[in-house]
């Protein structure tokens, strides 16, 4: 099979880099080989999605996906090497790295196992697995996270294609790569890349299950939600339940929808409760009371310079509902310019500005979904709304909000893309419907 110019350049680059690295430093050889393997897997993912019914066009999507991998990897390496940037943007990376290294030492019988927080252990063990295979080096985790982040491009494009068609799908790659929240946080040695990847897989499967149930789609949905329980337990519970509700709502036949939703819930419960995968995340989430959530939010608001609403109280259902409109607004649109206190808060303001710019597209996308069907609109709105409501109650500082907001963004990307396509279509129709005469008069046909 004849290779395209892009594939030839990529293959030559990796071969040359591997040859040089063999002489210079062995970890670079491993990095090049791991990167090549993951690029091949990403290419396979693009090909599978592009050849499926309603799939996206392959070559442009492949270029965007490979570009996303390279950009995310470059950003991750840059932030890790620059001590100031690392301490400012992702200091948690050091804890993940150190605990993963301790897990490897424990596997060798040379150290005790670290105490891991429930509902977060999946990322630690992912890093530990990489370190045990290739050596204790942060760059291996950055490479895997870059692949997770790059996979958002074809996954979200395919989901959007199935919901709103090719024109909307073409708007997805720039959104999935260039938005500040998508570009910065998944690139680092943090859990965000894996969380967004599993959310995107689950959402894609839910979109497929809304039309028909196949064993492979069910398997991928169950695996993605189960693994999400090991990365961020409460998001897995809320998003998983909301996506199941979306499947039920989307089915034209009510009985078939309820049956599909119950079947998925039973299989998911079997995996979590019987096999124990993700059970610690589920248990930690379900055992968290509103009083505990209030303490978490209070600590969040007071532990950072970007904290807000330190006096807010969500310790009871009534108080939580009373604070929800305020917290939801801050999650959706914050921080506002008057809430920026230092230069260090400017990245959060830049992220908020991107949300403000895209807000009209979100409204337009909601209109497209409503015109398509009320069921489609409800199925698309319920998951991001449920996640947004949960996050808005738990977080009390803008530094964490800009990271957590990506979990909502990945679920509303199809709506944003549909809105951008609809607005572009309407502008073109207005231009075609009007002609300017030499005298400067405007005549509408």
Give a description of the structure.
This protein is mostly helical and 445 residues long. Helices cover 77% and strands 1% of the residues. The protein has helices at residues 5-24, 26-51, 58-81, 83-89, 92-107, 121-134, 138-164, 166-169, 172-178, 180-184, 192-209, 215-229, 233-250, 254-274, 279-286, 290-302, 317-333, 346-372, 374-394, 398-432, and strands at 434-436, 442-444. It has a two-stranded antiparallel ribbon. Helix 1 (5-24) packs antiparallel against helix 2 (26-51), helix 2 (26-51) packs parallel to helix 7 and helix 12 crosses helix 14 (254-274). 45% of the residues are buried.
Taking all Cα atoms into account, the compactness measure Rg is 23 Å
Strand order of the largest sheet: 1-2
Low-confidence stretches: 17-24, 439-445
Average of pLDDT: 84
Which class best fits the helix and strand makeup?
mainly alpha
| Quaternary organization | single chain
What string, H for helix and E for strand, traces the elements in order? Answer: HHHHHHHHHHHHHHHHHHHHEE
Silhouette: globular
How many strands? 2
First-last Cα distance: 51 Å
The number of helical elements comes to 20
Strand content: under 5%
Biggest beta-sheet profile: 2 strands, antiparallel
Tell me the helix content.
over 70%
């Amino acid at each position: 099979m004849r290779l395209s110019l892009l594939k030839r350049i990529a293959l030559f680059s990796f071969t040359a880099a591997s040859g040089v690295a063999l002489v210079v430093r062995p970890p670079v050889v491993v990095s090049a080989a791991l990167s090549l393997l993951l690029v091949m897997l990403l290419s396979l993912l693009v090909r599978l999605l592009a050849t499926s019914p309603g799939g996206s066009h392959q070559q442009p999507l492949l270029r965007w996906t490979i570009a996303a991998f390279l950009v995310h990897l470059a950003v991750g390496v840059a932030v890790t090497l620059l001590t100031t940037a690392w301490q400012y943007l992702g200091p948690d990376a050091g804890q993940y790295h150190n605990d993963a290294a301790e897990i490897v030492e424990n596997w060798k019988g040379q150290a005790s196992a670290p105490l891991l927080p429930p509902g977060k252990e999946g990322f630690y063990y992912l890093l530990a697995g990489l370190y045990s295979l290739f050596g204790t080096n942060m760059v291996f985790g950055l490479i895997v996270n870059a692949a997770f982040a790059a996979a958002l491009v074809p996954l979200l494009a395919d989901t959007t294609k199935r919901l709103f068609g090719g024109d909307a799908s073409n708007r997805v790659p720039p959104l999935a790569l260039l938005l500040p929240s998508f570009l910065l946080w998944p690139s680092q040695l943090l859990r965000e890349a894996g969380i967004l990847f599993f959310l995107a897989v689950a959402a894609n499967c839910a979109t497929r299950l809304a039309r028909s149930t196949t064993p492979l789609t069910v398997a991928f949905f169950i695996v993605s939600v189960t693994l999400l329980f090991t990365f961020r337990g409460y998001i897995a519970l809320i998003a998983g339940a909301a996506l199941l509700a979306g499947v039920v709502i989307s089915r034209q036949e009510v009985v078939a929808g309820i049956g599909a939703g119950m079947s998925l819930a039973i299989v998911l419960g079997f995996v979590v409760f019987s096999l124990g995968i993700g059970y610690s995340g589920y248990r930690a989430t379900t055992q968290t009371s509103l009083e505990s959530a209030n303490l978490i939010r209070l600590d969040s608001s007071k532990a950072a310079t970007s904290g807000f609403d330190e006096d807010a109280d969500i310790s009871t259902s009534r108080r939580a509902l009373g604070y929800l409109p305020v917290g939801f607004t801050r999650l959706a649109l914050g921080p506002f310019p008057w809430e920026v206190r230092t230069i260090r808060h400017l990245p959060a303001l830049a992220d908020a500005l991107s949300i403000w710019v895209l807000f009209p597209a979100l409204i337009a996308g909601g209109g497209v979904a409503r015109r398509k069907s009320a069921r489609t609109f409800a199925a698309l709105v319920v998951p991001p709304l449920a996640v947004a409501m949960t996050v808005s109650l738990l977080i009390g500082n803008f530094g964490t909000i800009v990271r957590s907001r990506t979990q909502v963004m990945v679920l509303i990307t199809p709506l944003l893309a549909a809105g951008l396509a609809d607005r572009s279509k309407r502008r073109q129709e207005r231009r075609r419907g009007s002609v300017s005469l030499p005298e400067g008069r405007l005549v509408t046909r």
